[in-house]
Design a protein that fits this description.
23% strand
Length: 137
Amino acid sequence: MPADEGAIKETIASDYDVGFQEVQRRILGAAEKRGYRSQVLFALKMALEEALVNAIKHGNKNDKGKRVLVEASFSPQQAEISIEDEGPGFDRKSVPDPLAEENLEKPSGRGILLIESYMTKVFWENGGRRVRMIKQP
C-alpha cells in the first residue's frame, strides 16, 4: 500500500459496537478531505462496510477475541483499502454467483458482489483473509 501522510492503519475488535463505526468515519473523512467526489465516497462507504461486516461475521465468526486489520491510503489517482481478518479464509471462486437464477433467494454472496461492483479493482489475498480494494476517482 503506498505510504502518504494521511495513511490509516488500525486494528479493531470483531465487534460492531467497538471501533467499527470509528474506523469507517476516519477513512471516509480522509477521502473527503482529499476532495473525492460524492459518488466515490458512496462507493467507498458501501465497499468498506461490506468488507468489514464480512471480516467480522464470516472471517472471524463474530469472535470478539479476534481482530480485523484495516489499512487505507489515498492519492489523487486512487484510494486503496485493505481489510484482513484472522479467520480461515475462503476461495473467492467457490462463492456462488448471487445473480444466478438458483441463488436469487439465497442471502449469501451479495456483499462480495457489492464490493466488486463499487470498486475499480478488488484482490482477494492471503488465502481469502484479506481483501484489497482500489477505487480510482
